[in-house]
Amino acid sequence: MKVINLSESHSMLGNYIAQIRDKSVQKDRVRFRFNLERIGRIFGYEISKQLAYSDKEVVTPLGTATVPTCDSQVLVCSILRAGLPLHKGLLDVFDEADSAFVAAFRKYYKGDEFHIKVEYSTQANLNGKVLILADTLLATGQSIEITLNRLFEDSTPVYTHLVCPVSSVYAVEYLQKRLPYDNITLWTAGIDEELTAHSYVVPGLGDAGDLAFGEKL
């Protein structure tokens, strides 16, 4: 698995990452969602550079122009709830993409013990497509791994891009071991060093789903 950290080169993406991390800015739920959408657009643009293109002729009012356009069939999948604003931003770039959705969450037992449960998914045919899987925060990496296993049950994409704006070192290393494939790239914009006993990323950003849509029971 290849890892691309967009924070290694300076751009306005850093401003948007700073805002979704900032606890004073997080109080504005609309702004939090909008920043995630903008982040999704930037990741989508960067991913678009990796896709297949061919020249097409376009008839203009004054003649014919030759323009390189994307040939790849893209499918965007988000992990509910936190991935939804990212999903919107990615679809702003890949406006003809198919969509899929997966509900994955931590089910706690005693103390800090938990496992990731996938309760719902809209399955899609991935054969011949480029899959973009979006989740705002990558803590342990288990949600991504389990979600991919569910998605790959009946079909397999030609390439998979994982979009996780904030990640932990632990999760990145975990996925590199569990997903040792050449056709997967993890895209992130911040890799944090600490993962607590509760599997919370520090400094992280908090619960992205709650910040975007309100606290859950």
Overview of the structural elements:
By secondary structure, this protein is α/β, with parallel strands linked by helices. It has a single domain, classed as Rossmann fold (3-Layer(aba) Sandwich), CATH 3.40.50.2020. The protein is built from 6 helices and 14 strands. It has helices spanning 13-21, 29-48, 84-93, 142-151, 169-178, 208-213; strands at 2-5, 53-60, 63-70, 74-80, 98-108, 114-121, 130-134, 137-138, 159-163, 166-168, 184-188, 191-192, 194-195, 201-202. The strands form 4 sheets. A 7-stranded mixed beta sheet has the order 1-11-9-7-4-5-6, sandwiched between helices. Strands 8-10-12 form a 3-stranded parallel beta sheet. It has a two-stranded antiparallel sheet with strand order 2-3. A hairpin with a 5-residue loop joins strand 5 (98-108) and strand 6 (114-121). The longest helix is centred in the first third of the chain and has 20 residues, at 29-48.
Domain module count:
1
Please tell me the CATH architecture by its name. Answer: 3-Layer(aba) Sandwich
Helix content: 25-40%
| Count of alpha/pi helices | 6
Q: Main sheet?
A: 7 strands, mixed
For the biggest β-sheet, the strand order reads 1-11-9-7-4-5-6
